[in-house]
Each structure stands twice: as C-alpha cells, then as structure tokens.
Design goal:
Layout (H helix, E strand, L loop, with lengths): L1 E5 L3 H12 L5 E5 L8 E3 L4 H5 L3 E4 L6 H11 L4 E5 L15 E5 L6 H10 L4 E11 L23 H4 L2 H9 L3 E9 L11 E8 L2 E8 L1 E13 L2 E6 L4 E6 L2 E6 L6 H13 L7 E2 H16 L2 E2 L1
Parallel strand pairs: 1-2, 1-4, 2-3, 4-5, 5-6, 7-10
Antiparallel strand pairs: 6-15, 7-11, 8-9, 8-16, 9-10, 11-12, 12-13, 13-14
Helix pairs in contact: 1-7
Length: about 300
C-alpha cells in the first residue's frame, strides 16, 4: 500500500506517525515544503501521479481542502481519500464519482461517544446540552496560535469550523438540528480575526438542544448532558467517563486507559479494512453538515 499525506502540520504528522507505527504501513509519502527526515517527501503536486497512491490523507489548512480534493477527483480513480475535518472552509460544489471519500470526524470513535450511540439513547430525550470550551493558544505547541489557520478567517479558522466535531456528533447521535437562535462572534482579546464563540439553541426532533463553543476558556471542558424521561447521562469527553443516574440507578463508566490516538487508529482501520465502517463520516454526510455550518455562519439571532 502507498499512502500520501498532504500537509505536515500537527494533524498531518499525527496521521503519518499513526499510519507508520500503528498500522505498519511502510510506503508513506509527505507532500510538504518542509524537509522531513522520517518519510519520503515531495513538494510538487505532479509527483502524486508518479507515486500512484492507494490512500490519500488531506491534512492541509481547511481552505486548501477543496483544491486538493478536486485535483485528486479529476486525476485519479478508485483511490480512498480522507479529508481532515471540516470538509471545506465554505460550501462549495464538488461531485465525487471516481473515488471513495471520507471526512475526519474521528471523535465518533471515542469510547464515550460509541457507548452513547450503541446503548444509551433508547429512552425519550427531553433535552441535550453540549459544551466544548478550550483555549486556542494551548492547541499547538510548535506554532504560535495567531500564526495557525485557526486564527485566520481566510484559511478556514474559527470555532464553528474548528469545533464542528460537536455539530457532527449532535447530528450523528441524536438527529438533524433545527436552529432557533444562534450567537457567534469574537469576544476575547485573542489575536485572531475569526469568531471565538458560538452559542446555539434549537431542537433535535422534539428535544431541546443547546451548544456552547469557545476558543478562550482556560478551563477546558468537553461534555454532553442528556436528560431522558428515565435517566440523566453525563458524558465527559475530556476526561473519558460517563455517569448515568436515575431512579434507583447510579453508575459511572471509566475509560481511564483511553488515548486520543486510538480514535485516529480506529478511523484508519475502518477506512482501509472495513472495521466498524458504519461509524465513519462519508462525503454525503459531510456535505450536509457543511450546509448547516454555512447556515449558522451566515445567520445570527432568531431563525
């Protein structure tokens, strides 16, 4: 198998490391202007045709995704492509017919999320609360936060795109989101020109739904709280545990040995070896999510 990784930033280097160390793939090629000792690298896009890869991971900045995916679709047939999330920086038309395309919403493979998906959501849900608050300067150790794509609107940054995992998880776990009200913009003093917060309220089926995303919280939180007619479920994604409480019920499930790399490992295994393939985010689902993201970005207030 020959694998090409487009981009060698924090996420591109992670994919390369996991494919080499965990999936034992030897033929890994990196498209980057950097000089890379660990892998074979190239800086001319035309070189991909000579390599003839089976699998391509698009891990450049979000704004570049459309260009590279279109190039691959127009120049290759029957290869597998993984596009890092989000799909594009804005809604763009691209029909995929020559290749298989998946989008990197790897948090679907988190054990807490899988438990919610498989075992807990059979009761009638009253309300759902999702929070993902973090501090952008802590995200990447090797680059100043104001230099990364997350800080720049023209590169596809901002919490709505960057933290779109939560929108994907809401859709995947519970169903289609109907937005009733949203507030987003830049409220902190971070050196960025993108939105640093999103507060969204709406409905999923007949359940109340709220979402809170931010770039500026020094207390990092990532959690889901689901109240059903029978139980309350607290899912702490940052600390890898669930608490389930109800009448005569109190249970805690820990995933203390979990490492975030496992979500990427399982995602690659699903793509390449059809293991738990139903968990993957396919191109069609990502396009639908892109429509929702576009709607939120273009609208504020009541809808």
């Amino acid at each position: 198998m020959k694998v090409v990784v487009l981009g060698y930033g924090s996420i591109g280097s992670r994919h390369a490391r996991i494919l080499k160390n965990n999936l034992k793939i030897k033929n890994i090629f990196i498209f980057s202007k950097q000089k890379i000792k660990k892998y074979k690298s190239f800086s001319s896009l035309a070189e991909i045709k000579k390599i003839k890869p089976n699998y391509v991971v698009i891990a450049n900045n979000t704004r570049s995704h459309f260009f590279y995916l279109k190039y691959l679709e127009n120049n290759f047939k029957n290869i597998i492509i993984l596009v890092e999330k989000p799909l594009f920086h804005r809604r763009l038309p691209l029909r995929i017919k020559n290749n298989k395309v998946f989008v990197g919403y790897n948090m679907r493979f988190h054990p807490v999320i899988r438990f919610l998906k498989e075992k807990l959501l059979k009761d009638k849900i009253i309300d759902i609360k999702m929070i993902a608050n973090s501090y952008l300067p802590n995200w990447r150790k090797k680059i100043k936060y104001y230099k990364c794509y997350s800080a720049h609107k023209k590169l596809g940054g901002g919490v709505i795109l960057d933290l779109s995992h939560e929108l994907d998880l809401a859709n995947w776990l519970f169903g289609k989101i109907k937005v009733n009200y949203s507030l987003h913009g830049k409220f902190s003093k971070l050196k960025i020109n993108t939105e640093d917060t999103l507060k969204l309220y709406g409905k999923i089926k007949k359940s109340n739904f709220s979402l809170d995303l931010s770039y500026y919280s020094h207390v990092e939180i990532r959690k889901i709280l689901v109240n059903t007619e029978k139980n309350s479920i607290y899912a702490d994604i940052s600390n890898n545990f669930l608490i389930i409480k109800g009448n005569n019920l109190s249970k805690k499930i820990n995933y203390s040995s979990f490492n975030i790399d496992s979500t990427y490992i399982d995602q690659h295994k699903a793509i390449l070896f059809n293991k738990n393939k139903k968990i993957l985010c396919d191109y069609k689902s990502a396009v639908k999510l892109q429509k929702l993201i576009e709607f939120i970005k273009k609208n504020k207030g009541k809808h």
